[in-house]
């Protein structure tokens, strides 16, 4: 095995060991004692419905009225992650510590391989040193460990899928054949069923395809096979949503997410008391109207409010932009976690510093890297095409995680290229 291969294996083993050690040290599988809703939320509720033979349905079910009555078929989430939990529930005969262990092991493996993928992406974009630094950074990244070893959401899956898509796109740019682009379309379609975030990469894919085949007739020979295969993968799911829910879409919740972030009195954060997952009144209305109609009416209300309050919407969007890149600073964050305010919680401060530091360094690295080299430019565009849908709705730190590996790679490039030059100039300065 080469030196590079041995180091890649070391990164993989270190990353996996840290994640599994976290599971053991903090006994994160013990959280299943809180029940399915408190453990798995929407994904867990849908998984329970699948296992019990009710289909992809009942998004917020728990033993509290009115949610105990179920809510019917849903397209709120895409199928892969809830389907995986349903499979684990079947294998472990219901929600047990074994269910959680199996899920966290799978997530830890994917999180560890994401570090290797980002090294490969750095290599393909002409900066193997940045890729290597980023791989180690992701292996040791506290939030990567946290999400993989304790979070029951598609966060880790989304980052893995997103990074894999970008890595294979860079490979397609070199192979440049219809078969390669069709295979990439298959991967892209599957990634959309894990998390729809890669959908916004369509312009990036189009740009890379044009760079590989800079004539319209040749470009069509790459982009069309990609589009047709990717569409064929997601089409059955969209047809299912149309038949069962009444919406021909990959996910059905955009209107609701837009409304819970934009209304009189909004502060830029997610308003759980206006969401059907926590508001009894909204849940009853959701059941009465059905998911598609409820989401459509929410979208209409939100867009009407935005049209009537453009200045307020701009302010909220700026706040959400700050939260996306820098995070919720503990001084102004009013949220409480198990009775402890963010200002009093050292973990909240550490998370804010880490999230904001990577956000700032990543953006600076992307700008300098794009200026220094043509090769990474389309891939760096991903940092700017993913956020908008969240910036107009609402933001949690984990929503940024699909692009976190790219941000870390850009920050690593800055560390590898720019900082040494600045230090050298400082050392050569007179006096």
Q: Mean pLDDT, as a whole number?
A: 92
Helix content: 55-70%
**Regions with little confidence, pLDDT below 50 for 5+ residues:** none
The H-and-E topology, N to C, reads as HHHHHHHHHHHHHHEEHHHHH
According to DSSP, the number of beta strands is: 2
Strand content: under 5%
Q: Which structural class fits the helix and strand makeup?
A: mainly alpha
Largest sheet: 2 strands, antiparallel
Strand order of the largest sheet: 1-2
Shape call: globular
Distance between the termini: 49 Å
Query: What value does the Rg take, in angstroms?
Result: 22 Å
Number of helices: 19
Describe this protein's structure:
It is a single chain. The chain contains 19 helices and two strands. The protein is mostly helical. A two-stranded antiparallel sheet has the order 1-2. Helix 2 (36-51) crosses helix 3 (80-91). The protein is globular, with a radius of gyration of 22 Å.
Q: Which properties best describe this structure?
A:
single chain; 431 residues; mainly alpha; 2 strands; 1% strand
Question: Short description, anyone?
Answer:
The chain is mainly α and 431 residues long. Helices cover 68% and strands 1% of the residues.
What's the layout of helices and strands?
Layout: H1 3-26, H2 36-51, H3 80-91, H4 97-124, H5 128-140, H6 142-150, H7 155-175, H8 178-194, H9 202-212, H10 216-244, H11 254-259, H12 280-289, H13 291-308, H14 310-325, E1 336-337, E2 340-341, H15 346-372, H16 377-380, H17 382-385, H18 388-391, H19 404-428
Antiparallel strand pairs: 1-2
């Amino acid at each position: 095995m080469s030196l590079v291969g041995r180091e890649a294996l070391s990164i993989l083993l270190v990353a996996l060991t840290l994640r599994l050690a976290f599971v053991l040290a903090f006994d994160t599988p013990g959280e299943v004692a809180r029940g399915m809703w408190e453990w798995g939320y929407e994904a867990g509720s849908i998984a329970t419905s699948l296992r019990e033979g009710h289909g992809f349905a009942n998004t917020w079910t728990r033993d509290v009225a009115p949610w105990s009555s179920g809510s019917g078929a849903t397209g709120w989430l895409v199928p892969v992650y809830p389907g995986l939990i349903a499979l684990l529930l079947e294998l472990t005969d219901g929600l047990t510590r074994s269910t959680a262990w199996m899920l966290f092991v799978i997530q830890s493996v994917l999180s560890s391989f994401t570090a290797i993928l980002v090294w490969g992406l750095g290599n393909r974009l002409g900066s193997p040193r940045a890729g290597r630094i980023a791989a180690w950074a992701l292996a040791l990244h506290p939030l990567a460990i946290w999400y993989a070893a304790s979070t029951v959401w598609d966060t880790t899956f989304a980052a893995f899928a997103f990074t894999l898509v970008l890595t294979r796109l860079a490979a397609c740019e070199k192979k440049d054949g219809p078969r390669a682009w069709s295979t990439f379309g298959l991967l892209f379609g599957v990634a959309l069923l894990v998390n729809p975030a890669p959908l916004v990469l369509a312009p990036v894919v189009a740009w890379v395809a044009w760079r590989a085949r800079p004539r319209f007739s040749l470009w069509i020979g790459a982009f069309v096979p990609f589009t047709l295969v990717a569409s064929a993968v997601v089409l059955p799911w969209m047809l299912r949503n149309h038949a069962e829910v009444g919406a021909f879409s990959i996910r059905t919740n955009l209107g609701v997410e837009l409304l819970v972030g934009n209304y009189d009195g909004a502060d830029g954060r997610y308003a759980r008391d206006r969401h059907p997952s926590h508001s009894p009144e909204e849940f009853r209305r959701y059941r009465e109207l059905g998911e598609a109609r409820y989401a459509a009416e929410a979208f209409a209300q939100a867009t009407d409010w935005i049209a009537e309050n453009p200045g307020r919407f701009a302010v909220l969007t700026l706040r959400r932009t700050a939260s996306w890149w820098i995070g919720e600073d503990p001084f102004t964050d009013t949220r409480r976690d198990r009775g402890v305010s963010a200002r009093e919680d050292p973990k909240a401060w550490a998370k804010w510093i880490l999230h904001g530091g990577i956000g700032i360094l990543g953006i600076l690295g992307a700008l300098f890297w794009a200026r220094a080299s043509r090769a990474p430019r389309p891939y760096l565009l991903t940092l700017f095409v993913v956020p908008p849908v969240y910036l107009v709705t609402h933001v949690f730190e984990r929503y940024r995680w699909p692009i976190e590996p790219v941000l870390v790679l850009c920050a690593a490039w800055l560390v590898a290229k720019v900082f040494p030059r600045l230090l050298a100039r400082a050392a050569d300065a007179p006096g």
